[in-house]
Amino acid sequence: MIDKIKELIAEAEAFKAQTKEEVEAFRIKYLGKKGLLNEYFAEFKNVANDQKKEFGQAINTLKNTAQDKVNALKAELENASDNSTSNLDLSRPGEPITIGSRHPISIVKNQIIDIFSNIGFNVSEGPEIEDDWHNFTALNLPEYHPARDMQDTFFIQTNPDILLRTHTSSVQVRYMENNPPPIRTISPGRVYRNEAISARSHCFFHQVEGLYIDKDVSFADLKQTLQYFTTELFGKAKIRLRPSYFPFTEPSAEVDVYWGLETETDYKITKGTGWLEIGGCGMVDPNVLTNCGIDAEEYSGFAFGVGIDRIAMLLHQISDIRLLSENDVRFLEQFKSAL
Ligand code: PHE
């Protein structure tokens, strides 16, 4: 009988299984209630005394061997089902990964930031929800100043001191309050105006405003800076400064770039003139410097503000400003190859 048990031990050791079912059948055969081991244990009392020891050891070995085998095979099959490669079809084509694209507003904004950082301007940002002081009063627009009407402001109804900024000049005020001259900074950001929405204008849009404050800054510096900027951005150098009015600059001008009239979009965006009005500029009014704690006797400076949306529309031939905020994937996808 002992020889038979030794045979079974060797058999159990050599046993291999492919499936859990085979392991279970093995377990039942050896370790189950009516399994071989229980049979041998029941046999124990019939074994001659002098053989009991050897017999006992043999069935214990068989039991341990079978139990170890079951445990080992179970663990092996568990692992295999976790990272089994047997069901994978390695010849299947991969799932396409959709890659996002940068928004045309961001593309143009980043280009403008690059152009100005090359001549030493840093980037400053501020809140879109502003107070009256930073959006108006500090900029030489006291309460009841008629020029406040130029900017159709969204006010918070319960608190007329709080509004959605109408320009990023508010960031320049914050910057001057917190940084001594010399100052060279640009402030990109979203601004809001209560305007009727059409293909050409929206109730929110984007600006980059620039500010340069130092000793002896002149209008010629302003003009050269704008000339440099437009040449870098558009590759076209022809600009035009039209006398204008802003409460926070004196003298003030409107900046136009000659773009041309090659496409229908050019016609639409330039209203058929070929000239694109990109923004306003001027020498910072001494009152503004004083309001912001800068000595207007010692320092002078220039400021300008350009609209990003219209520039993006021209550079990327987008004929309707509303496309920029509708988040239509078919539109946005087209900018994948841009920056
Ligand atoms: N803040 C002005 C606007 O939004 C633009 C501007 C900026 C004009 C700086 C002059 C100087 O209309």
Automatic annotation (TrEMBL):
Residues 108-334 form the Aminoacyl-transfer RNA synthetases class-II family profile domain. Binds 2 magnesium ions per tetramer. Keywords: Aminoacyl-tRNA synthetase, ATP-binding, Cytoplasm, Ligase, Magnesium, Metal-binding, Nucleotide-binding, Protein biosynthesis. Mg(2+) binds at E250. GO terms for biological process: phenylalanyl-tRNA aminoacylation. The keyword Disulfide bond does not apply. GO terms for molecular function: ATP binding; magnesium ion binding; phenylalanine-tRNA ligase activity; tRNA binding. GO terms for cellular component: cytoplasm. It is found in: Cytoplasm. It catalyses: tRNA(Phe) + L-phenylalanine + ATP = L-phenylalanyl-tRNA(Phe) + AMP + diphosphate + H(+). PROSITE patterns: AA_TRNA_LIGASE_II. Its cofactor is Mg(2+). PANTHER family: PHENYLALANINE--TRNA LIGASE, MITOCHONDRIAL, PHENYLALANYL-TRNA SYNTHETASE. Tetramer of two alpha and two beta subunits. Belongs to the class-II aminoacyl-tRNA synthetase family. Phe-tRNA synthetase alpha subunit type 1 subfamily. This is Phenylalanine--tRNA ligase alpha subunit. It comes from Olleya aquimaris. The lineage of its organism: Bacteria, Pseudomonadati, Bacteroidota, Flavobacteriia, Flavobacteriales.
